[in-house]
Amino acid sequence: MIKSGKADSQSGKHSDAAHGILEMAEADHTLVTSSSDQKIVVKQYPVTGMSCASCAANVESRLNNQPGVVKASVNLASEMATVEFIPSMVQPQNLKEAVTSIGYDLIVDESENAKEELENLQQKLARSLKNRTIWAIVLAVPLLLISMFFMNIPYSNYIMWVLATPIVLYSGRTFFSNAFRLIRHGSANMDTLVSLSTGIAYLFSVFNTLFPQFWTIRGLQAHTYFEASGVVIALVLLGRLLEGNAKANTSAALKKLIGLQPKTVIKVLDNGHTREFLVSKIKPGDVLLVRPGEKIPVDGIVTLGSSYVDESTITGEPVPVIKEPGSHAFAGTVNQKGSFQFVARKVGSDTLLSSIIKMVQEAQGSKAPVQRLVDKIAGIFVPVVAGISLITLAVWWIFGGDNSFSQGLLSMITVLVIACPCALGLATPTAIMVGIGKGTESNILIRDAESLELAHKMNAIVLDKTGTVTEGKPSVNMIEWLNEDENKAYTDILFSLEKLSEHPLAEAVVNFLDKTASPVQLTDVTSITGRGITGSCNNVKYFAGGLRLISENNIRFSPKLENLVNLWEEEANTVIYFANSREVLAVMSVSDRLKESSPNAIRELKQMGIDVYLVTGDNYNTAEAVARKAGIPEFRAEMLPSGKSEFIKELQKQGKTVGMAGDGINDSLALATADVSIAMGKGSDIAIDASKMTIISNDLLTIPAAIRLSRNTVRTIRQNLFWAFIYNVIGIPIAAGVLVPINGFLLNPMIAGAAMALSSISVVSNSLRLKYSR
Asked: Would you state the pLDDT for residue 23?
């Protein structure tokens, strides 16, 4: 087994992890650095108006070309631009003007009102997209039916014209406006392709509906292609709607992280009275009161009182930690049953919670999804198709003989119709939709195409211990009694004593004895912080707690039980002692059990060629025992959230595509850093929202299944894209008339439309095969 040097050098105590967390909170996370006497500022600004990868590339290129900008990167998924710039050379307003000049907008106003206005605008655009998509689909269905089965009814062309017009001019208006904006700046994307093909098809159909004699006097039939324009726009809008919903979910995790901090706090005034204040009004040095069940608002040091605090948001461990005078308290953690006062030390953006939020924002970023490739190819494909159509018209006009212009115009339209991007646009979303459906059937929730694309490349996976490899809750494995004949009477006393304890491990004992024990009357019950609890029954004093409680009261410990305790501790279990004033009566082994599926799941992952690592905030002995039982060759113990993230970055620097599976809020940074993030479904909502995949069943065996699904889906996407492009490579030359000199064959536009539909059907059918894959 390969052991972490960090794990070897640390003691594994909870307090060590807490001090390490404090150091992380105190670390310098400022976004201002220095370079050659020039101050460099790093800022994040929302970007509006982007619709695809080339839009993000245009904004990024424009920002990088501005004087004073050191580096700029644009995240399409979050619609955010991260800009490193020198304020003495360029101001945010200059950056805004640069982005606005190419048809987008950079929101540099950081006030709360501006944030609210931006959120309202985004909601308005989302509603508009949904409405336009619904109307497009509603109108496209009868349009398609008429074109396929009722072409000979009276006024069929006019009916289709009426149906297609609102789809093109209302539902599809953004395609044309975006395409026009891009053309003005010498670029193209999928909007250009959609607007060119649907616009030509629509205008050509309108012309043929109003002036059919233009073709009939030349011995040709006046075909219309209203269905091509309407159906293509409806399908592409549906894809955009699904993409928009996926984007909206990416910010949910950050909103919930921010929601961990309460808006108000109880401040202790100089005269001893308390008053409620907004947390934004708190300053370092203020004394605050935390009552049972409340969230801790800021970072600080406890000065009065004691309580257990659930720090799973920070450490990921299920057992709450005792807080006494001198202990550190952290924003976002939850107080349990006691009350205490503490002095604020870090407030606002300086708290550990704010640091985690900031790092998650910086770590989240979309990798290159398959659709980026489609957009890049579309940028070349569009001018090529337009050029071929114009060349087709010119060649026919020059060398076509009689009716050369009309034949050339018809062939040009045929080229544009057959080059319609329907199959190209369907190649990715249909495979993703079927893959997501297949995943749901297998208890795998997949958020976006990015995770599907990267999961098939995964060759390393980092597993959090608590709640991922283990069950995530402490439970009693075994109780060993000194004298089995007397255990019934003592069981009732132990049950009643632990039921009065505030310690979280006591709940595990109570749950274990709940069905076999009955409560009895106890007197003189005393809870001893950090040690355990005492109480009397029939004038006999009893003790329940840790070894320190037993030692301090000089209670005898039999060799039989001592040997068993040593064995349990070697297995990294926690031991609870139950005794009277003379001797230890029983010992209990408490642990976080390994999931039954973990060893088999890890074996499958290794058989798939994936390196498996275990990371945990727990102590070295526990980590080693869990790794050994689960069959994990490498582990890292006593890791803070930032440590898990750094470990993933180390693996990425080695050229590995890294997956991360976790269930705690403390895993959100590591999940955001990983190439593929996987949350266990019974974990925290924030871990689930920060991840790209969620294992709904909480069964670790589902992770290998998710990777197999990813590999099948990506293979299907590549097949779809291959056939979509091959279709165009073969179809466009035939549509242009390349076979006319050979055998006189000239493709009819109606056949071109049918071929276009067939290409779409083949792509969808290939995607549906995913439903029956393993």
From this structure: 39
* R_g of the chain, CA atoms, integer Å: 33
What pLDDT band is residue 452 in, cutting at 50, 70 and 90? confident
Q: Which residues of 210-238 are buried (b: 16+ CB within 10 A; e: fewer)?
A: eebeebeeeeeebbbbbbbbbbbbbbbbb
Cβ pair 38, 88 in contact under 8 A: yes
Which pTM was predicted? Answer: 0.52
d(CA 277, CA 57): 45
Let me know how long the chain is: 774
Q: Is 374 exposed, middle or buried (0-12, 13-18, 19+ CB in 10 A)?
A: buried
Q: Are 334 and 346 in contact, with CB atoms under 8 Å apart?
A: no
Q: What are phi and psi of 217, to 5 degrees?
A: -70, -15
Contact 554, 581 (CB under 8 A): no
Unique residue bearing structure tokens 């249909």: 430
Count of other CB atoms within 10 angstroms of residue 486: 12
Q: How far is CA 598 from CA 133, 162, 629, 702, 711, in A?
A: 44, 60, 9, 10, 22
- Angstrom distance (rounded) from CA 607 to CA 611: 10
What is the per-residue pLDDT across 285-295, written as a single tens digit (0 to 9) for each?
999 999 888 88
In Å, how far from its chain's centre is CA 472?
22
Which active-site residues does the annotation give? 464
